[in-house]
Specification:
The structure holds two protein chains of two kinds. By secondary structure, chain A is of the alpha+beta class. Chain A is built from four helices and eleven strands. In chain A, the strands form two sheets. A six-stranded antiparallel β-sheet of chain A has the order 6-7-8-11-9-10. Chain A has a five-stranded antiparallel β-sheet with strand order 1-2-3-4-5. At the A-B interface, strand 1, strand 3, strand 4 and strand 5 of A face helix 4, helix 7, helix 8, helix 12 and helix 14 of B.
């Protein structure tokens, strides 16, 4: 991913921008109100936007979808990627989670939730495609793939007391 | 409303007259706002002009609804300052400080001084001259917001520079308003001094609370119901404004502090809720200011107004040049910034109104009215002219396809 520049616009919101290979400054003004403005500058005059398109929240989603790239949801803490209905989420095993000390097979994660643990991030290093016998520990981060409902169910499983 | 029990027929006639007059004024303002939209200028000068036309000695004097209009105007000031406070969170205000200070101080010195000196030269006296300095200092953030969105300038590289000037002015208002308010209401020197200390202490405390705990406090006070939120925020703002006025710190300062205190998502929600109310009562405030200004004084101050307008539009150009150069903005970008900052508006009128309370002569309100008429009209027009000649020569089609193919 290219370098994104972020600038706070007090009273308006914030601006995220980057420069394309052909030297155009392209960016988005994210208003506090949820409105987005996409702007494009000419390579000759990077100060001034040559074209500004105003997008409502729905229209912004449409644009992202038509670009066909990952949608990053940075809303509330945990990292989530969503591609055409498939959700990837990073979930942490917190102290006190009932899953600590149990293996993935033990917990029957895929049977119970329909979502799979595709990788585990652990201090000692990432474990891609963990075996069913893999035992969860406090501080592990599970990379879970599935539908939104499936991923939510895994989260619930991790937090169940 | 005729209830037959408590209203005599005289009261009914009175009610009818008030309704007709207020309705007539609002209908006229609607025409003005429409005209302003058509001409793409700020409606503020047109509202002022409407007020001048209706006032004492104007074309169509109004007298019956004066009391109603003056209460509406008071609400207008409170709403304007409440929303000015809401516009920037405490964190935006203080976080921006380091970057904004050099240009902000330059702006303060360059734009406060002309008004202050002009006041002294015109023999308005030291106190009133301070208010005139305030009038020429503050750019209109309302006009800036409107021009930015009308001309699609939000993405421009000079925009953050302009906004940092506005943020600094906002913070400066947090200091200047209590001081001027205390001068206006404080009475004796010691009384004024105590009010200044109280007000500045309140400003500091509010900023601290807002930066440290603003979002949590606001979230606790806010509910899911817009109705509850509207009533809560208006109730708090009016109570604080009233309390501030009671201890000789202007009501405007109180409302401003409430605005700063609310932050985070709650502030954005409040902005959406309050802006229609603000539009209504601020319009009433501008009309009222026009009403209480004697139009017959205007010709006498025309030349000072023109000179002051010309000088202080140039000093804003200097601010834009200084800030633009520091941030590597091209000349054309600096002209755009200058055009944005040139307009003075709502806050100049508020400061002038405070000055009138402080015993400033009718000349202060006439100068302020004329000055805002001039700069708030010319600013947006200048922005359009600059937009015309700073527009990129080529149409907005892109040659990206050719580039992509060559890769």
């Amino acid at each position: 991913m290219g370098h994104l520049n972020e600038t706070a616009l007090p009273g308006i919101g914030q601006r995220v921008e980057f420069t394309t290979d052909e030297g155009r400054r392209v960016g988005v003004v994210q208003h506090h109100t949820g409105r987005r403005e996409v702007f494009v500058c000419s390579p000759d005059d990077p100060d001034r936007s040559q074209l500004t398109v105003r997008l409502s929240e729905d229209e912004a989603h449409s644009l992202v979808e038509s670009l066909g790239v990952l949608q990053i949801d940075e809303g509330q803490g945990p990292r989530t990627y969503e591609v055409e209905g498939l959700v990837f989420e990073w979930l942490e095993v917190e102290p006190g989670s009932p899953t600590v000390g149990h293996s993935i097979a033990d917990l029957a994660i895929r049977t119970r939730t329909g979502a799979s643990v595709v990788a585990v991030l652990r201090e000692s290093g990432p474990v891609p495609a963990p075996e069913p016998e893999f035992v969860l520990d406090v501080g592990d981060t599970l990379v879970v793939a599935g539908t939104t409902a499936g991923v939510d169910a895994v989260r619930a499983l991790l937090q169940l007391t | 409303m005729p209830c037959g029990r408590c209203c005599s027929s005289r009261d009914v006639t009175h009610t009818v007259q008030v309704l007709l007059e207020v309705g007539g004024v609002l209908a006229l303002l609607a025409v003005m706002a429409r005209l302003a939209g058509r001409l793409s200028v700020s409606p503020i000068p047109l509202y002022l002009a409407a007020g001048l036309a209706f006032g004492d000695g104007g074309l169509l004097p109004l007298d019956i609804s004066e009391e109603f209009v003056s209460t509406g105007a008071e609400l207008g000031v409170i709403l304007l300052l409440l929303m000015l406070g809401l516009e920037y969170s405490g964190r935006e205000l203080t976080g921006n400080l380091k970057r904004a200070t050099p240009i902000g101080v330059f702006d303060l010195v360059l734009n406060f001084t002309p008004g202050y000196v002009a006041g002294l030269v015109l023999g308005l006296g030291v106190t009133t001259s301070l208010f005139l300095g305030g009038v020429t200092y503050i750019s209109s953030s309302g006009v800036v917001a409107k021009v930015l969105s009308d001309l699609g300038w939000t993405g421009n590289r000079e925009t953050p520079v302009v906004l940092s000037v506005l943020v600094f002015e906002d913070l400066a208002m947090a200091v200047i308003l209590p001081v001027l308010g205390a001068i206006a209401l404080g009475g004796s020197v010691t009384g004024a001094a105590i009010s200044v200390v109280v007000a500045l202490g309140a400003v500091g405390l509010t900023l601290w609370l807002s930066v440290r705990h603003g979002e949590r406090l606001s979230a606790a006070a806010f509910s899911d119901s817009d109705e509850v939120n509207l009533l809560t925020i208006m109730g708090i703002a009016l109570l604080v404004a009233g309390a501030a006025e009671a201890i000789h710190v202007s009501a405007a300062v109180g409302a401003f502090l409430v605005g700063i205190g609310i932050s985070g998502p709650a502030a954005h929600r409040a902005e959406t809720l309050l802006s229609p109310l603000r539009d209504l009562f601020a319009a009433v405030f501008f009309v009222f200011f026009g009403l209480s200004t004697d139009p017959s004084v205007l010709p006498g101050v025309a030349i000072p107004v023109l000179v002051l307008g010309a000088v202080t539009m140039l000093t804003k150009v200097a601010v834009a040049w200084f800030g633009g150069a520091r941030n590597g903005i091209s000349r054309r970008g600096r002209w755009r910034a200058a055009a944005l900052l040139a307009a003075r508006g709502e806050f100049s009128i508020i400061i002038a109104a405070l000055g009138v309370t402080a015993g400033g002569s009718g000349r202060l309100s006439a100068i302020a009215a004329g000055y805002v008429l001039l700069t708030a009209t010319l600013g947006p027009v200048a922005a359009r002219v600059v937009d015309g000649w700073s527009a990129p020569p080529k149409p907005a089609t892109t040659t990206g396809a050719a580039h992509a193919g060559s890769r």
